[in-house]
Each structure stands twice: as C-alpha cells, then as structure tokens.
Design brief:
mainly beta, Immunoglobulin-like, 5-stranded mixed beta sheet, 1 helix, 16 strands, 3% helix, globular, disordered N terminus
C-alpha cells in the first residue's frame, strides 16, 4: 500500500492542511546568549617623593600625561566652590580638564561677590548676589588663581590636571594612582607653593601590574 504525505491525506479527507507540518517542529527562539565584553586590565603607579629640604605644608600633586594621546575617561561631577565670609571654600582644588565648576554665592546676608581668574585662562565672571551662581568648564590644564574684585583679600587656586590620573602626595611622601590604562606616560609634579623644581620622568604602565617610582624634588 502506497502511503501519501500527511497533507495530501488530510486534503483527501476534506480537512484543512494548515496544521500539517513537514520536517521538524520549529523551536521558539529564546533570548540571545549574553555577549561577554572583554574589560581591559589596568595598572597603577605608586612611589615616594623625596625632598632636597624640608617639605612644604602646601599640597603637592603627582599627575600623568599620556604620551601620544589623551586618556578616554568620564569626567568627574561638577565641583562646587562656595563664597562666604570673604573666602573661597575650598580655597584649593584639583580638577580634570573638561570638568565643570560652579561658583556659588553662599552668603546669608546681602553681600555680592565676583570671581575672576588669572593664569592659564583669564576670565571675569561678573558680580552675583546671594543665592546666585555661575558655571564654567575648565578645558585646558594648568594653574588658575581665583580672586574677587569686591573683596581684595579673597583668593583661591585651582590646578587643572590633564586627566583623572593624579594623586595628592601624602604627608609621608607616598602617592598612588590606580586604574590607569596600559601605556607610556610622563609623570609630573605640581606644587601649590613652588619651593622646588618640578619633576618630569617617564613611566610605563602595564596591565595588572604596579609600577613603583621615586620622585626627587630638588632646588
């Protein structure tokens, strides 16, 4: 006896062939398998700063400049600098190039303030009353002095590092910079009150490793 395909058998019986299936049943597609993104390992740089004479009490910053390019990393959140009692708070801060600063008049009395900068970029932000603020993005690395044209003794200072790869030197002279992409860098120093010659020396960062360096600040 010759066997007919199921669809023909159903058709001969006057039944619909819509339910007839040729070949294997199709599988319902589930969610795609997760894609695992490879995360590049980072390295670190640590060490100690030695001084030719007594270390100054003012902050000293160690920072890295990448040779042949910039570090591609998210910028930190905006830094708020408050003006109250004829002072900037904080009076010194380290930024990253491209980071925004909010200058805020925080007086609880009817006292106006002004902000103007001298240094790598000179700019006057005008006068603003209590509760008001002005915002500015510092895009270029360098040192900026802050002043208020209304209060002559009011001053502050900003250092804009080229990237997030920076660290303040501890009182014992040690420092550490973590989570640095592998590559060749130049390690540099910044002194809020410059008493020594700033240092600059090459350093290589390898994935998963810590590079240890000694930085000498001489006169």
């Amino acid at each position: 006896m010759r066997l007919l395909p199921a669809s023909l058998t159903l058709a001969a019986a006057g039944l619909s062939t819509a339910a007839a299936v040729w070949g294997p049943l199709p599988r319902h597609a589930g969610p795609p398998p997760p894609v695992l993104h490879e995360i590049a390992e980072t390295g670190s740089v640590s060490g100690r700063v030695t001084f030719a004479a007594t270390r100054p009490r003012q902050p000293i910053i160690i920072y890295l400049e990448r040779q042949g390019g910039e570090l591609d990393a998210p910028r930190p959140a905006a830094l708020v600098i408050r003006q109250k009692g004829a002072s900037f708070t904080p009076s010194f801060a380290v930024l990253v190039a491209g980071q925004e600063v909010v200058f805020e008049n925080d007086e609880d009395r009817d006292i106006d303030h002004n902000v103007y900068t001298l240094g790598s970029e000179e700019r006057d932000f005008g006068i603003f009353s209590p509760g008001k603020s002005v915002r500015h993005t510092f895009s270029e690395p360098g040192e900026f002095s802050l002043y208020c044209s209304i209060h002559k003794l009011m001053d502050g200072k900003l250092f804009v590092a080229p990237s997030r790869a920076w660290s303040e030197v501890a009182q014992d002279g040690t420092f550490a910079i973590r989570d640095i992409p592998p590559g060749s860098y130049t390690l540099k120093t910044y002194q809020k009150a410059r008493r020594f010659r700033d240092a600059a020396q090459p350093v290589a960062v390898s994935a998963g490793k810590e590079s240890t360096v000694t930085v000498e600040l001489a006169r």
